[in-house]
Design goal:
Strand content: 25-35%
Distance between the termini: 49 Å
Order of helices and strands: EHHEEEHEEHEEHEEEEHEE
Radius of gyration: 22 Å
Number of helices: 6
Structural class: alpha+beta
Shape: elongated
Largest sheet: 10 strands, mixed
Oligomer: single chain
Length: 280
């Protein structure tokens, strides 16, 4: 006899600490267990994974310590989504540790940023875990959850500001590899097609054609950084990336998105040295 799959449990709880009697004799874990009806273990797990927040006015931060001190004027928040919290991903690979920043090979499925529902699968949290939480991390540019490849994390505010400005000014050469179905008809083409009414330009070069599998490997350099730019541009040419479930015709049985950020070239804004990182 087949059983129905368990429904996803979603609980959102907000506790105004001004309404809590004997605030000094309680802790976040106890308050959230009482309010949500969840077990201590489930609430602890949610705290560890960044789904519990403490706010004061417009300022909010993740709260991970079960015995953290609570104060009047604050509000405690639980964003419990069983499906999100049960997600697991492969660990990123360290490519280069430059001190002020580090370069990583981000696996498929890793988020560029977390959300109020959790951050345990985000690149920032995974990098902090790699360094035993002895370094802060700052995301200075993004890579699609479904894409793999090179991503840079800053480790102090000064480096974060300098690297973010570098990406904003588009002084970074960003190169990607994408497999598409069929024989791409151009040796090289520039796709100049706006996305969300904003200019977007990609240079696409055919690297090889695999006749046995009837697929083409394309090298793509993006001159702008619009969301899903490569996916949208290649789909507009009738060659969506293999595994693209949003802009192509991939289904649940298709492979993961075949998009890799494989090369970054820039002048380091901190040392002035020319830098190039590349995945083989």
């Amino acid at each position: 006899m087949m059983t129905e799959p368990a429904q996803n449990t979603i609980i959102e709880q907000h506790i105004n600490l001004d309404d809590v009697a004997d605030l000094n004799d309680t802790n976040p874990l106890e308050l959230l267990v009482q309010a949500s009806g969840l077990s201590k273990q489930k609430v602890k797990d949610a705290m560890t994974k960044g789904a519990v927040w403490l706010s004061h006015g417009k300022q909010a931060r993740p709260l991970r310590r079960k015995n953290a001190r609570l104060r009047l004027g604050e509000e405690l928040h639980l964003y419990y989504n069983e499906q999100v919290l049960s997600e697991t991903v492969a660990k990123p690979e360290l490519i280069a540790d430059e001190g002020d920043y580090s370069v990583w090979n981000k696996p498929y499925g890793v988020w560029s940023q977390g959300s109020k529902w959790g951050d345990h699968c985000s690149i920032g949290r995974l990098v902090e875990e790699h360094f035993d939480y002895n370094r802060q991390t700052y995301v200075v540019h993004r890579l699609d959850k479904a894409a793999r490849g090179l991503i840079i994390l800053a480790h102090n505010k000064e480096a974060a500001a300098a690297l973010s400005a570098m990406f904003a000014k588009r002084t970074v050469e960003k190169h990607y590899l994408a497999w598409v179905k069929g024989h791409f008809p151009h040796q090289s083409i520039t796709i100049d097609k706006p996305i969300d009414k904003k200019p977007a330009k990609s240079i696409v070069t055919l690297k090889e054609y695999d006749a046995d599998k009837d697929r083409s490997l394309l090298s793509v350099q993006i001159l702008t950084g619009r969301k899903h730019q490569i996916r949208i541009h290649l789909a507009s040419q009738g060659f969506p990336i293999i595994g693209d479930r949003q802009y192509g015709n991939a289904d649940a049985d298709s492979p993961d998105l075949q998009l890799l950020a494989y090369r970054l070239i820039f002048q380091c804004p901190i040392t002035g040295n020319q830098k190039q990182y590349q995945l083989e």
